[in-house]
Structures are given as structure tokens and as C-alpha cells.
Amino acid sequence: MKFNECVEKVSTFTDLKRFANEYVIDYKRLSFDELKAAVIKTAPQFSNEDNVRSVIRSIELNQDRNIRILFNIYIRNVLLNCDDFMESVRVVEDKIIAYEQDIVDTANEFSLNEEVDNIELYKYVVEAAWEENNDISVDEQNLINKIKDKLGISEKHHQILEAQIGKFPTIGNLLHAKDDISTVRRYFQNKGLIISVRDTNNVDYDVIPEEIATVLRKLFNIDIKESSYATLIESKYVKSKTYLIDMLTKAKVMVPKYPKSAQLKELAMKNLTAHQLLGGFSAFDGLDKKTLSEWCSTLGLIAYGTKPELINRIVEYYDNIKQIQCTEEDERELLYHFYEELASRKLGELRQQGVINKDLECEHKFELATNYIFEKIFKIKPLIMSGTEHPDGILSFNDKLIMWDNKSKETDVSLAEHIKQFDRYIKNSTKPVSVFMVIGPSFTADSQKECAKYAMSNDTIILLITASELKELAENWAKAHTTDKEPLPLGVFKQNGRFNPDLVLL
Q: What pTM did the predictor assign?
């Protein structure tokens, strides 16, 4: 989310004041609207590289160890790995606690001596620092950070080491409580790194504005989300053992004598950026230009340009893949997330997100997603249909039927082009059809007139509803009926012509 959009969607006046604290002068005297304008005016200061570097330095050497510990987890491991660098406050807290628990569990199962060079020396330094007052001072932390970087110890290995000596995430390996995380959240807001925004359902999100996230990624040497990297590294162009060993060797990473494929991929993701994996460390490293061009072509990307340009396109493509969490019991949930894209046939994006493999799948998956909406959200099971000459869906409506047909198109749907087909479905029905719904991305201006024309000579009315309108109705219905299993009253679809959401009472 862009900086200005974050400011416009900020959760509360208090949250905005915290965010303004670092760079806006006399922010306490300004009204809500005045403060929004002032923050937007000072936007370049929030994303200035020197300013962000200074903020990071102040956090890494903060007197409060909770702030130091949570910074890397909160910002680097969680938010910078979220889609659009944002996640709900509740989920962020759960992810932080899960990360800490994973480090503690790993510390009990994992021997650093077998994998990390210089770890015995580093362990001696860390344990010596902890001896005095059972704490790490700012000066000691500064020295540890420098030695860690000099010895090539990763932050995660440092965390595992501290957990093994009973000091991570807090003394006694106790996890941070959600109140601790809330306190640190306010501090990061005060430093101009995180802003809290609120959506239309009054859910609060932690967001790193895109402009600030770009700078943080540069300073942390991150070029892709972890989930996206995991997808990229499965590509046939880079996943071979020979290629991975070659790139890791050139990066001076110690490789096991008889490595498994999974080990090599994990080592690559830990030690190489995506750009380094594809391009190596010199003009002659990595994939050649012909292979990169072929890879771009398979992804539907521009396949010409310089080697760095081709690599940038590939990394950006994978980095933009969304992380959609679906239940195992119904794969249609994924299709529902991309309902509007299926309706408007955004084929490139659908292939990128793994929703379709072939263009021909788009129409069918649009139909499956519509079935999911009626069955799982509206709690109305569509009827089983026989034969081939039938609409995409049929619902029982008292002693009549409601039919629908999906039209996945890149342009407006013209009812006139399909009315004969729909008329056949209606006339061949064994029961009267009360409403025939046409679901598409959008409709031509004359389609509404076609609805009126058809209704004048038939007992069936035709409803034109866009995919975005149907999805919004589904989301509003789900929000209003979180605890009950009441089905949607199908009478809401008894509208002739274009759908009017103002006529729907949930």
C-alpha cells in the first residue's frame, strides 16, 4: 500500500500521531485532517534511506532488549514477508509468537556445531556477555553485532544459539506475550516504520508503506518474499543439484558432501538473494541470457533485454505471487479469492498466481467459484444437472427455479449476443424459471434494455450482476451471519436489469 493511501486509511487519530512523531514538527497541535496533510507533505523523510538506516541503528542498539529482539522478527521476518507488506494485527501477533516458538523448538533439536563455522568462538563471546548481570548492555550488543557480521553468523543462527543457552526470546526461553508485542508496535509506529490502517470491516492492519518497505528491503539485502522464493527455486531452470551447488560454492557457502535437494534449496534461500541465484556474482555466472529469455517467455513476460533486466522481471513476477490460505477441504476457496480476475479473464495474473495452467480453464473455474459462493457462503446447494444443454447453475426457489450463467470475458458482456442461448435454457426447463442471472465482469449499455424487452414477453426476469457485486454481497452476508447457518433469501435476486445492492436487506 502506498504511503499516502496508508495515511488516508489510518486507524485512529492516536495512531496517526504516533506515526507522525518522528518527522512532523508540532504534530500534537494539529487537527486530524491537518495532521494527515502534514504527514503526506513530509512523506519523503519517512522513506529517506539515511533516515531509515538511522532508525534501524537506534532500534538495534535500544536499551530495551524486547525492542531489539522483536525488531528483526516483527519487521524483517513477518511484515516484509507479507503480501503488500501488511497483515492484520491479530495475525501478526500470532506469526511472531509462532516464529519464536519455532526457534526454541529448533534449538532443542539442532546442533549448530555441525552446520555453522566459527560457532564455538561466537558462543564463547555471547555467553561471556550474558555473565554480567544476566543481561546484554547496548555496548555489548553493539560488539556482538560486529563480531556476528565478521564471523558470518546469520541472525537466525544467533537466535538459535541464544535459545540454546536459555536467553531467547527472553530469559528462560519465555515467549513474548501479545501485550509485549503491542508495546513494541507502538514504538515502531513512533519511529515511522509501521502505520496501522483499518478496513471497511473495522479490522486493523499493520502496514509498512511501500516506499519505506522498498528501502528496508535494500538495507536488509532482501529482494523477494520467502514464500515467493520457495516457488521460484522449484523452477526447472534453477532447481538442479548441480546448479545449486555451483551457485552456493561461488557464494563460499559450505555444502554437505552428499547433499539432498531440499538441503541445497534451503541453503540457497538462506545465503543467496534471488538475483544472485539467477545471475551469480559476475557477468559469466548464473543462467545465460538465452535461458533467462526462455524462462521469461514461459511466464508470459517480455523475453528480450539485458541479462539484469530479464532477471529483474523474473524475480518481480514471483515476488508478486500472493499467499492465499485455503482450507484443505475445498480447493474452490482459492478460486473465490480470484473471482473478479476469473470473470474478466486476467489470464496472465491467473497463471502467475497458480489459479490456472491453461487459458481454457478460466471459464470452468469461474463457474466453480460461483458454485462455491452459493454453496459455502450463501448456504444454498445448487441442483445437480444432467445433459449438456443447461445453464451453469440452478437453484430451487419455492416452486420455481433460479438459473445463472457465467460469462468470462475481457470486454463488456452483451446480453443480445447470448439471449437466444439463455431463452433455450429457460424454455427447456421442467419448472418455471423465476430469475435468470447473468454473471460477468461488466455489461454493455444496451444490455439493460434487452432485459426489459425479454421481460415484456416472458414470465422470467433477467438479472445482470457483475462478479464484484456478487462477491461483495457474499462478503457482506458472511459478515452479517458469522454464527448462524441461515441461507441467503433468494428473493434478493428478483431484480430485472442491472443489480442494485441498495435494494438488498441483509
A: 0.74
